[in-house]
Design goal:
The structure is a single chain. Strand 9 and strand 10 form a beta hairpin. Helix 5 packs parallel to helix 6. Helices cover about 30% and strands about 25% of the residues. Strands 6-7-8-3-9-10 form a 6-stranded mixed β-sheet, with helices on both faces. It has a 4-stranded antiparallel β-sheet with strand order 2-1-4-5, covered by helices on one side. The radius of gyration is 19 Å and the shape is globular. The protein is built from 9 helices and 12 strands. The chain is α/β, with parallel strands linked by helices.
Length: about 270
């Protein structure tokens, strides 16, 4: 057991999918403190999704360790991890016609005792999480027929039904229009502030990441190259080097956060 206050920690993590392939993650070390709101940014193929899977215990590092509340995550079984850590994937395709309510109830799986099935406590939690995510009105609707924003809120409700302390989200605003991107990020920030939920999310949009996350981690070719406040991480030289794009960084007109302006090639 490590004597630190990190809710989740990666220590010197290397990872590759196949023995003869190159490393997807290289000597990654980071800490997520309890109640933090942290965004993970980086270009496509930099290892963001892989890092999330390693932190959730779904993938085992080739080298280094992941610690959950100071304890090696490999000492936990999947059920215990799921009671502490919830993951919201980029997309969730369901082959069967589950209702939104049934989808959220699936989040209770780590707590439901075999054979006995869901009880009053499980139904109460599901109702609370659907109310919290404004999905109660969607309860009877087929999940497959919901809009992108509605699906994302239902998936977040399902993750919250696990009653986790840590929420890992992989591109939570992917495929959403501007209005629904803001809606989802406002929800995530509200969960962090009101529920004291530790949140770690991969983000594609640098400006939204700067607006909504207290700390950013920049990943490039499997390595952490910057870690700090949005102003510390989103620097012109860093963005040009990592994303290979010409940009200017300005201050947001109403918030004290950096905003990245892309410059055309001609």
């Amino acid at each position: 057991m490590r004597g630190n206050s990190a809710a989740l920690e990666a220590a010197g993590v290397d990872f590759c999918y196949y023995e003869n392939d190159g490393l997807v993650l290289r000597e990654v070390s980071l800490e997520l403190g309890a109640g933090e709101l942290v965004g993970l940014i980086g270009p496509n193929g930099s290892g963001k999704t892989t890092l999330l899977r390693v932190l959730s215990g779904l993938l085992v590092p080739n080298r280094g360790k992941v610690y959950l509340d100071g304890q090696d995550i490999r000492t936990f079984d999947r059920r215990r991890i799921a009671q502490r850590v919830a993951v919201v994937p980029q997309e969730l395709a369901m082959p069967f016609a589950f209702s939104a309510y049934e989808m959220v109830m699936m989040g209770r799986t780590p707590h439901v005792r075999p054979i006995l099935g869901a009880g009053p406590r499980d139904r109460q939690v599901v109702a609370e999480k659907m109310e919290l995510t404004a999905t109660s009105v969607l309860a009877e609707r087929p999940f497959s027929e919901l809009s992108g924003g509605e699906k994302q809120r239902v998936i977040i409700a399902m993750a919250l039904a696990q009653e986790p302390e840590i929420l890992l989200l992989d591109e939570p605003t992917v495929h959403l229009d501007i209005n629904h991107q803001v809606e989802i990020l406002e929800l995530i920030k509200r969960l962090n502030r009101r529920e004291r939920l530790t949140v770690f999310a991969t983000m594609h949009d640098l400006n939204l990441a700067a607006l909504y996350f207290d700390r950013l981690i920049l990943l490039d070719r499997g390595q952490v190259v910057a870690n700090g406040s949005p102003a510390e991480v989103l620097r012109e030289e860093s963005i040009r080097e990592v994303f290979r794009a010409d940009v200017q960084v300005q201050q947001h007109p109403t918030h004290h956060t950096p905003q990245v302006v892309i410059l055309p090639l001609t």
